[in-house]
Design brief:
This protein is α/β, with parallel strands linked by helices. It has four domains: 203 residues, Rossmann fold, CATH 3.40.50; 124 residues, 3-Layer(aba) Sandwich (Rossmann fold); 209 residues, Rossmann fold (3-Layer(aba) Sandwich); 123 residues, Rossmann fold (3-Layer(aba) Sandwich), CATH 3.40.50. The protein is built from 25 helices and 26 strands. The longest helix is centred in the last third of the chain and has 24 residues. Keywords: Acetylation, Allosteric enzyme, ATP-binding, Cytoplasm, Glycolysis, Glycoprotein, Kinase, Magnesium, Metal-binding, Nucleotide-binding, Phosphoprotein, Transferase. This is 6-phosphofructokinase type B. One of its GO terms (biological process) is canonical glycolysis.
Length: 752
């Protein structure tokens, strides 16, 4: 993701009229100077967004930790007239930048005294502004939701776990997987949650004494229940209660000696740092890069050095040293064995991940049998992550003591009585499966209302959890509106939005859209590569999404597309003409390829075929054109780590909310729910998980085009256009606000 950030900072800098320099080899290049500091132009950062690592190099630098080294660095910057520095790196690099900034005045004085620069030059460069972007695969920087590179590292880990699971399954093996994280267990924790690992070791929460017996007992138990494999995930910095390291080989030997299971160790190592960046990382870095330039432009002598971060889907600025301080506090708490506190300082979402993992990994007998029955079904088109949501919902339901039913084939299955009770182990291994294991249909309830009511009565269903797309939301709305006719429908209902189109009201992200964006992005990366080879070729790529342009906009940002046509951002023949001219100009430069995305229903008359004909005839002699329709490959594939965890969390939160509501409306041995808030859509809104009544959402829905009337992601289109070199006005750009990082802010539930 670092390259996407370098690209965004460079282009935004040029865009606002600044001179941009790329410093090669990190602080080493800053100290050495010379050829390491090169002025960049628009094309310097072309075609790098899909590359892993960083094209400008990075190096650990001894010299910069000394004052003499920083003096040389200051001299090199002043020579080029550079007074704004954007640093992309971990907490070490960022702390170094802050020290450099605080010494700046003194360093310049020293250079004047040595006669290396004149008084006037020192006056002109009297202030150094610094902004940081956190690049670290560990996600160990406190205060920031996600650091650059974390999501890509999780993609690498999940690819390995999926591959290992298949061999372990065949050979009945136990695997001990060691992932990176010397001081932070984030990668181990999230991959454990996303793979349903049997046991997990993280440095923040060492196992209780006597864990060896407990772990072996538990592994033996899962095997005797018919499971053919065990996965144990261990962070490289894992320790026991006394602070002694726990090594992956120690765990392996333990399993072999006590249980005699065929056990293998896999150390993932630097695989986790490599590979092509995920869509999330590319979009995150592009957003953060744009915001970083704005933060530098708006900096005053009084603003502290800040890091740019993402909170929910909003850009924010955080004082650098506050984040560094809390990050140090975590380490100190761990060193002093205050483990509970360490987990809290990591932030609320870390703590939630840990609690949910413990809840779902092993069956704990319910305190008492509850009187409630809950049914779970999938509706609409398949979306990755549906199975993860079903799994966690089933397991939490069982933990709460409810009777849990699953329904095959959506509302149609509910009307035909395809309903069965499930147990804890029936959903084992569902996490990483794409599509829908329960089967899904687009049928809406109004076509078979009477039969649905009959089965709700027959099975005594008091809670309905519907996981699906726009039809799931519309279907529940129909059931609620039929309550006047059928008392049986006065039950608790909840919708988990799951669709690749991301077009369900009440949430910023639908389950499955992250996987779809990654699938579309991988295809476009290949298409771009083909275009680079043939020279002077423009590809027109059609994406899915119905009328919703989310998929094509976000994919467009992730692959650096020249344009993305969507229904929500109306375009005319004048816009098409401007786009063609823009590409014609682009072909005169060194980048002789173009990529244009078109959402399938963006315009009734300007079809993909029409665009192809238009571009072909206007570009005659300058470039040629090809069409690619991505189609159903956007629905398939294994769910991304984000969708596995998002599905898992939504499943847990939805069932806990349903249980609470069921208790509220339980009178004299029966459930009667008639208020608007007894049927809701659960979703992530800005920073929090919220429940919105379907009857309220009806007012803000465009049913004809199956869209929410207002969509947050439209402001991403500014970035898409700016990065593709269109002259647009930045008056609509919303700058991030400065927020503080304290123990209190860390305790707020973030939703991710």
């Amino acid at each position: 993701g670092m390259n996407a950030a370098v690209r965004a900072v460079t282009r935004m800098g040029i865009y606002v009229g600044a001179k941009v320099f790329l410093i090669h080899e990190g602080y080493e290049g800053l100290v050495e100077g010379g050829d390491n500091i090169k002025q960049a132009n628009w094309l310097s950062v072309s075609n790098i967004i899909q590359l892993g690592g960083t094209v400008i190099g990075s190096a650990r630098c001894k010299a910069f930790t000394t004052r003499a080294g920083r003096l040389r660095a200051a001299h090199n910057l002043v020579e080029h007239g550079i007074t704004n520095l954007c640093v992309i790196g971990g907490d070490g690099s960022l702390t170094g930048a802050d020290i450099f900034r605080s010494e700046w005045g003194g360093l310049l004085e020293e250079l004047v005294q040595d006669g290396q620069i004149s008084e006037e030059v020192a006056r002109k460069n009297c202030r150094l502004n610094i902004v940081g972007l956190v690049g670290s695969i560990d996600n160990d920087f406190c205060g920031t939701d996600m650091t650059i590179g974390t999501d890509s590292a999780l993609h690498r880990i999940m690819e390995v776990i999926d591959a290992i699971t298949t061999t372990a399954q065949s050979h009945q093996r136990t695997f001990v997987l060691e992932v990176m994280g010397r001081h932070c267990g984030y990668l181990a924790l999230v991959s454990g949650l996303a793979s349903g690992a049997d046991w997990l070791f993280i440095p923040e929460s060492p196992p209780e004494d006597g864990w060896e017996d407990l772990m072996c007992e538990r592994l033996g138990e899962t095997r005797s229940r018919g499971s053919r494999l065990n996965i144990i995930i261990i962070a490289e910095g894992a320790i026991d209660r006394s602070g002694k390291p726990i090594s992956s080989n120690y765990v392996k030997d333990l399993v072999v000696q006590r249980l005699g299971f065929d056990t293998r160790v896999t150390v993932l190592g630097h695989v986790q740092r490599g590979g092509t960046p995920s869509a999330f990382d590319r979009v995150l870095s592009s957003k953060m890069g744009m915001e970083a330039v704005m933060a530098l432009l708006e900096a005053t002598p009084d603003t502290p050095a800040c890091v740019v971060s993402l909170s929910g889907n909003q850009s924010v600025r955080l004082p650098l040293m506050e984040c560094v301080q809390v990050t140090k506090d975590v380490q100190k708490a761990m060193d002093e064995k205050r483990f509970e506190e360490a987990i809290q300082l990591r932030g609320r979402s870390f703590e939630n991940n840990w609690n949910i993992y413990k809840l779902l990994a092993h069956q704990k007998p319910a305190q008492e049998k509850s009187p409630f029955s809950v049914a779970i079904l999938n509706v609409g088109a398949p979306a990755a992550g549906m199975n993860a949501a079903v799994r966690s919902a089933v397991r939490i339901g069982i933990c709460q003591g409810h009777t849990v039913y699953v329904v095959n084939d959506g509302f149609e299955g509910l009307s035909k009585g395809q309903i069965r009770e499930v147990g804890w182990h029936d959903v084992a291994g569902w996490l990483g499966r794409g599509g829908s294991m329960l089967g899904t249909k687009r049928t809406l309830p109004k076509t078979c209302m009477e039969k649905i009511v009959e089965n709700v009565r027959k099975f005594n269903i008091q809670g309905l959890l519907v996981i699906g797309g726009f039809e799931a939301y519309e279907g529940v709305l129909q059931l609620v509106e039929a309550r006047g006719q059928y008392e049986e429908l006065c039950i608790i209902m909840c919708v988990i939005p799951a669709t690749i189109s991301n077009n369900v009201p009440g949430t910023d992200f639908s389950l499955g859209s992250d996987t779809a964006v990654n699938a579309a992005m991988e295809s476009c990366d290949r298409i771009k590569q083909s275009a680079s080879g043939t020279k002077r070729r423009v590809f027109i790529v059609e994406t899915m999404g119905g009328y919703c342009g989310y998929l094509s906009t976000v994919t467009g940002i992730a692959v650096g597309a020249d344009a993305a046509y969507v229904y929500e951002d109306p375009f005319t023949i004048h816009d098409l003409k401007a786009n063609v001219e823009h590409l014609t100009d682009k072909m005169k430069t060194d980048i002789q390829r173009g990529l244009v995305l078109r959402n399938e229903k963006c315009h009734e008359h300007y079809t993909t075929e029409f665009l192809y004909n238009l571009y072909s005839s206007e570009g005659k002699g300058i470039f040629d054109c090809r069409i690619n329709v991505l189609g159903h490959l956007q629905q398939g594939g294994a769910p991304t780590p984000f969708d596995r965890n998002y599905g898992t969390k939504l499943g847990v939160k939805a069932v806990l909310w349903m249980s609470e509501k069921l208790q509220e409306v339980y009178r004299k041995g029966r459930v009667f729910a008639n208020s608007g808030d007894s049927a809701c859509v659960i979703g992530l809104r800005k920073k929090v998980v919220a429940f919105s009544p379907v009857t309220e959402l009806k007012k803000v829905t465009d049913f004809e085009h199956r869209l929410p009337q207002e969509q947050w992601w439209l402001n991403l289109r500014l970035m898409l256009k700016m990065l593709a070199n269109y002259q647009i006005s930045l008056t609509e750009y919303i700058s991030g606000t400065m927020e503080h990082v304290t123990r209190r802010t860390l305790s707020i539930e973030k939703g991710f």
